[in-house]
Design goal:
4-stranded antiparallel sheet, alpha/beta, 2 domains
Length: 383
C-alpha cells in the first residue's frame, strides 16, 4: 500500500496561470502535477472537494480514484474547476507510479509509437520573447525567426482583435483583409516553409466565421481552431461543411463524453484535447481512441508549465493518431529554465524529444512549494 498522506498546491509567481501540485505518499514518494487557467477555482476545488476523497487512498489505484472522483463531481457538472484540479492530481499519480517502478510514464501506457513528436509554436509572449507582438508588427520576421529556431509550424490569431466591437457578430471586409494579410505574410516566407494554423478562441458567430473561412481558403492553412464556440455543435458542423480547411476543436470540452457529439456530427476534422483539463493522461488516451474510431487525428493543447509539457509529451508518444503537440518557445525558453531542469527543445526538423527519467520527467524544486500561495491538505480524508 502507498497511501496519499498530503496534497499541496501553489500558484507560481513567475506564471500565475499555472497551479502546481504535489501529492505525497506515506512511503516517501512524491508526484508532481499541474493544471492551468482559472487557478483560484481549481485550487479551492482541489482542497475543498477532492482532497477529502483522496487522502488515505492507495496512490496506485489510479483507475479507481478517477472513477471515485468523477462519480462525485459529474452530477453537479464536471466541466470546470473540479476536473481541472483532478487532472493535476492524476498527472501526479502517474508520476508517482513511474518513480516507484523506475520507468518513464510512457512505458506505463504500453510504450511509445514514435521516437519524437510533431509540434507547433503557439505565438504567445513571455519574458524577452515577444512572439505575440511580433506577429502583429512583423509577421514575416516572426516566420523567419521561428524557422531559424527549428519550428516548422505555428499558430496565430489575427482576427481576434476585430471581435470586440460587435461581440463577434460582425466582421467587415476591411478587417477580414487585414487579418488575412498577416497570415499571407507569414506564409510567403521561404515559399511557405512555415505551416500555419489559425486560432479563433471561440469568438465568432457563424456568419463572421464563414467570412474568415472564405478569406483563408487559398492561404494554405493547416487548420482553423475554435472559430465558433465548441458547445455550438450545429454551427461548427455547418462551418465544417463549407470549407476545405480542417477544423480543430476543442480543449474546452472536457472528457470523451463532452467530445462525443462533436465527433459524431462531423463538426471537426482534428480533435483537440488538453491533458491538464480533460481528466489527465488516461482520459487523454480515451479521447484519442474515440477520435481514432472515426478516423480523426488529435492535437494536445498544452500551454502550462514544465510538468504539464512533459506530461503532454509522455502521453502523446503513445497516441498513434497524434497530429501535433502544442508548445511555446516563449515558455520553454524563458519560463521553464526558472522552474527546474526540464527544457524541451525543437529539433532541426521541428520535432520534440521525449522527456527522460522516471515518472513524468519534470518536477519543480521543493523550494517552490512555500510562501503565501501554498495550500496543503493532509490526514486520512473522508471517503
Amino acid at each position: 500500500m502507498s497511501r496519499i498522506c498530503r496534497i499541496e498546491s501553489v500558484t507560481l509567481r513567475e506564471h500565475q496561470r499555472v497551479l502546481a501540485v504535489r501529492v505525497h505518499c506515506d512511503d516517501g514518494l512524491i508526484g508532481h502535477g499541474e493544471t492551468y487557467d482559472k487557478v483560484p477555482g481549481s485550487q479551492a476545488a482541489l482542497h475543498g472537494t477532492l482532497a477529502p476523497l483522496l487522502l488515505g487512498q492507495d496512490s496506485r489505484a489510479i483507475n479507481a480514484l478517477t472513477t471515485l472522483c468523477f462519480d462525485n463531481i459529474r452530477y453537479h457538472g464536471f466541466q470546470g474547476a473540479e476536473w481541472r484540479a483532478f487532472s493535476a492530481i492524476e498527472l501526479a499519480l502517474w508520476d508517482i507510479q513511474g518513480k516507484r517502478l523506475g520507468v518513464p510514464v510512457v512505458e506505463l501506457f504500453g510504450g511509445a509509437v514514435r521516437a519524437d513528436l510533431p509540434c507547433y509554436n503557439t505565438c504567445i509572449s513571455y519574458g524577452p520573447c515577444n512572439d505575440y507582438q511580433y506577429w502583429q508588427e512583423d509577421p514575416a520576421g516572426l516566420a523567419r525567426s521561428l524557422l531559424a529556431d527549428g519550428y516548422r509550424m505555428a499558430k496565430v490569431w489575427p482576427f481576434d482583435r476585430f471581435s470586440e466591437a460587435s461581440l463577434g457578430q460582425h466582421l467587415s471586409q476591411a478587417e477580414c483583409a487585414q487579418g488575412a494579410a498577416t497570415l499571407a505574410a507569414m506564409r510567403e516566407v521561404d515559399g511557405g516553409a512555415l505551416a500555419l494554423g489559425l486560432e479563433g478562441h471561440s469568438r465568432w458567430a457563424l456568419p463572421a466565421a464563414r467570412r474568415i473561412v472564405t478569406a483563408c481558403e487559398d492561404l494554405g492553412l493547416e487548420f482553423l481552431e475554435d472559430l465558433v464556440p465548441a458547445h455550438d455543435v450545429a454551427a461548427l458542423a455547418a462551418l465544417n461543411q463549407s470549407t476545405r480547411i480542417p477544423l480543430v476543436g476543442s480543449e474546452t470540452l472536457f472528457t470523451r463524453f463532452a467530445l462525443r457529439e462533436l465527433i459524431e456530427r462531423a463538426a471537426v476534422d482534428i480533435v483537440m484535447v488538453d491533458p491538464m483539463w480533460c481528466g489527465g493522461l488516461g482520459e487523454t488516451r480515451a479521447c484519442a481512441q474515440l477520435a481514432a474510431t472515426y478516423g480523426l487525428p488529435v492535437i494536445l493543447h498544452n500551454l502550462g508549465g514544465p510538468v504539464a509539457h512533459a506530461a503532454a509529451c509522455q502521453i502523446a508518444a503513445t497516441i498513434p493518431n497524434l497530429w501535433a503537440v502544442e508548445s511555446s518557445r516563449a515558455l520553454s525558453d524563458h519560463l521553464y529554465p526558472q522552474l527546474g531542469s526540464y527544457q524541451p527543445r525543437v529539433s532541426a526538423s521541428g520535432r520534440l524529444a521525449l522527456p527522460t527519467g522516471p515518472g513524468l520527467g519534470a518536477e519543480l524544486p521543493a523550494a517552490w512549494f512555500c510562501g503565501p500561495s501554498l495550500c496543503a491538505s493532509e490526514g486520512n480524508g473522508a471517503a
